[in-house]
Amino acid sequence: MIPFLQAHADPIIWIVKIALLLFIVLTVNAYLTWFERKVVAHMQSRWGPHRVGPHGLLQPLADGAKFLLKEDPTPAGVDKFVYFLAPLLALALALTSVGLIPFGPDPIRIFGHDIYLGIAPPNLNIGILALFAITALGVYGVALAGWSSNSKYPLLGGLRSSAQMISYELALTMSVVGVLLIAGSFNLTDIINAQAKHPERGVFGWNIFPQLLGFMCFFTAAVAETNRVPFDLPEAESELVAGFHTEYASFKFAMFFIAEYTSMITVSCLCSIMFFGGWLSPFPASWTFTHYLPSLLLIPAGLWIIWDGIRYETVFGKIILPGVGTVLTALGLALLGGLAVPLLHSVNEFIQGPFWLLSKIFVFLFVYVWMRGTLPRFRYDQLMAFGWKLLLPLSIANVVVTAFVILMWGAK
Amino acid sequence: MTAELVIFFVLAALAVFGALSLILQKHPIHSALSLIVVMIALAGLYLLLGAEFVAAVQIIVYGGAIMVLFVFVIMLLNAGIEEHTNISKMAGPPGLLLVIALAGFIAATIARSTGTIQSVAQTGQLADTRSLSNMIFKDFVYPFELTSFLILVAVMGALVLAQREKS
Fold first, then answer.
1. CA distances from A331 to A103, A105, A294, A338, B44 (A)
2. ipTM confidence
3. What does pTM read for this prediction?
4. Could you tell me which residue, A349 or B167, shows the higher pLDDT?
5. How close A180 gets to chain B, by Cα (Å)?
6. Is there a contact between B59 and A162 if contact means CB atoms under 8 Å apart?
7. Are A250 and A71 in contact (CB under 8 A)?
8. Which residues constitute the domain of residue A265?
9. Is A293 inside any structural domain?
10. Winning range, highest mean pLDDT, from A160-169, A187-196, B12-21, B42-51
């Protein structure tokens, strides 16, 4: 058994990594729906899901079971092959793009193998281009779903979305050119490292400061690419029922749903990596005491959850919530133990990168949800005018100015 | 058989399969989808040759932008299954003849060439992005600019043609 594992270490590591990432991404997806419903509900003075499990925490599980068990009718007159291909394509492409994201700077050493966080190797020279390639193909999932359903609302939704995605892809690609010029590389790890050129500058070394305009163009275009509010015209309920996925039910619908939420995660990762320093800490590198921030956040959060759980009405909640709280508090205390124990210290150092990256990703996901709770939808002509007449010229101007500055004074 | 060779044959078979399917499919959308398969298989072949940038651009430009436009137009016109007219039926026999001639020509070229697929697959880092951009923007900058000028003219021509008549 052991020699077999050693002989085939690389493929085994890959498979384990892929399975692990799939599990994490799908779980995060499920809880993102919970988070979104909760946040939007509180913005609208409602409670949101709170029946299934304490604070509705088991709602995603119930939803998952519902998706699996619902009847899955195939409408008459659909183009069978394309109808089945579309959700598969959407989901596969969305999940592939997450695989290209590097999640941490340092490899874990297990049995003499350096294992990097993230599926793509850290020296993938075309990281960002590969992501754009996948985004470019992502249109097909939506467009083909709309076409193959043999129904007018999906067709209109598919047409709208292809037009929208083609239009905003230009601005999306142009807006990152500034970052690429500064970093001089397509490699995502290099792009992050270029922002760490002056470790003492901390947050002021990130690309967001020279590239504020680029970031605004990128985020707007990326929201449009993921078909989210305020650019969710392909699925405008009041006009198109549910847009391109009207005719899809059960798990095929869930696949589109998961694809959409996964691309939200990818976009949040990209925003953090390209403009907000990725896994870099916002503090100067010499402030090592900030390395205990994760534990200082975990302990109060854990204690609060325990306190909340004791007051909770249902017995289930009285058991689950204090349990979760205890685990979080213990985790925080363990990380704090790094002050004394060398092993815990190295663990604490190791999680710094992933901690900051995940925090930034979380902030962007919150912004997504926040926008959904706040902004009204664009009208179609406004959407097209905004993309072509404002976003594209702005991002091109950003490229020209950045290129000029770098030519005159060099990159930083 | 090395891994590269296996991947080469898989991608090559996929490309040929996609190209055949492109011709034989009855419905325009299916043909367009087959063409996308060809484009992506070609991108894989470029990647195998060490041309990462070209591979990515192949997918972004051909697999993404251009084919999306094809699919979009087919969807917009709601084109149905293609109909065979007399002239398109007549194109069959000469087409078959041309196919045989081309296949013979390619076979002859392959038979005469000395390089093996193995050696092609292992040329490695021939066209990394830096050397490619050096070539485009230093060595061949005038042809490049001329080409972009040509594209600009074509874009403006399309704009003029698409403009509505002033009443």
1. 20, 22, 10, 11, 45
2. 0.78
3. 0.85
4. A349
5. 13
6. no
7. yes
8. 2-286+341-409
9. no
10. B12-21
